[in-house]
Design brief:
The relative contact order is 0.10. The chain has helices spanning 2-19, 29-47, 56-63, 71-82, 86-97, 102-109, 113-133. The chain is mostly helical. It has two domains: 1-47, Orthogonal Bundle (Rna Polymerase Sigma Factor, Chain: A); 54-134, Orthogonal Bundle (Arc Repressor Mutant, subunit A), CATH 1.10.10. It is globular. The longest helix is centred in the last third of the chain and has 21 residues, at 113-133.
Amino acid sequence: DRARAEELTQEAFIQAWRKLSSFRFDAAFSTWLYRLGVNTALMDLRGKRDEVNADDATLELAAGGEVPFCAGERGDLERAVSKLPPRARAVLVLHDVEGWKHEEIAAELGMAVGSSKAQLHRARGLLRTTLEAA
């Protein structure tokens, strides 16, 4: 939904403006701004837990755009990721693609650290099963 994406983009920039004083210069500004955008989108998804469906943006984020696979393997990976349950998919993307720690994921998604670890284990197992069958 393009309109919703525009609203979330605007919300991310508003958050950036409000939190500008908390920018620590430990990383590039673009990385910090990107993280705010991801967090804003995740908070929106969190509000729609059961309504979340995989879309091209989620799959592109999961694939990272730089996966060293051939096109067929990338397609298989995207399909496998799209079949994951929403919470497991979110934890997988945040941990394995974005490099978040379980503590950060737990805080962002409102779950216990152990649940984050369990969801990651579940997501990897489901991916393995799906990709081995492909």
